[in-house]
Design brief:
- The model has no long low-confidence stretch (mean pLDDT about 80).
- The chain has six helices and no strands.
- It has a domain at about 5-60.
- By secondary structure, the protein is mostly helical.
- About 55% of the residues lie in helices and about 0% in strands.
- The radius of gyration is 24 Å and the shape is elongated.
- The termini are far apart.
Length: about 90
């Protein structure tokens, strides 16, 4: 059984864990910066590194592009395609 007695727990550990959980919960990074008392947002961005769960949730919110089966108008413009081939 794991115990806190075998862990190195510091006030910074709690601070760091709380900040990471706030980011995961979707709290705006500027609010977290203010809560932590950071002057620079660059310092707070350290906590904003997304974990796998955060990445999964973000991907779930992205809509699948709808394809119409028609090619884009620029793809049907032969003069444009010929010019692009010269580049």
């Amino acid at each position: 059984m794991l115990s806190l007695q075998t862990k190195h727990v510091t006030p910074h550990s709690f601070r760091h864990a709380t900040a990471v959980h706030l980011v995961s919960a979707g709290v705006d990074i500027t609010v977290i910066r203010s809560w932590l008392g950071h002057v620079s947002l660059d310092t707070t961005n350290h906590y904003a590194k997304a974990n796998l769960e955060t990445k999964r949730k973000a991907l779930e919110q992205v809509a699948v592009p709808v394809t119409t089966g028609h090619s884009s108008s620029w793809k049907r413009d032969t003069s444009l395609l010929a010019w692009l081939d010269t580049l």
